[in-house]
Amino acid sequence: MIGIARSPRCFHHVNMKALPFEYTNSKNAWMNRSIFEDWFHKTFMPAVWAHLRKLKQEGKALLLLDNCPAHPTAENLFSRDGKIKVCYLLKNTTSEIQPLDQGIISVI
Fold first, then answer.
1. Are residues 43 and 86 in the same domain?
2. CA-to-CA distance for 99 and 105, rounded, in angstroms?
């Protein structure tokens, strides 16, 4: 979750680390490159490693992303051993591939 306040009033008496989600802030409550990169390295990669170990699978994973300006370049998004990587979809293809862009939103 991304909000504007560093420490929102609604979480005043709550241990922020105990929440079932991660909270971070930015001046306009939007995703940006630094937030995404931090999430990728500190949350996504450890969760992928834990999931693969649980399944007793080989440690390889690929995260497919659209080309949102908030996403850092793929050169900054990979594990040290290179087994977790990011691949970007081609420009102007997300509306053809993503279910939410295929009419689900308009039906709701």
1. yes
2. 9
The reported pTM is 0.76
Same domain, 88 and 78: yes
pLDDT tens across the length of the chain (108 residues): 999 999 899 888 889 888 898 999 999 999 999 999 999 999 999 999 999 999 998 888 999 888 788 888 888 888 888 889 998 888 777 666 666 655 655 655
Domain count, the chain: 2
For the chain, the residue count is 108
Both 12 and 44 in one domain: the answer is no
Segments forming the whole domain that contains residue 6: 1-30
- Any residues with CB less than 8 A from the CB of 25 and at least 6 apart, and which? 2, 3, 4, 5, 6
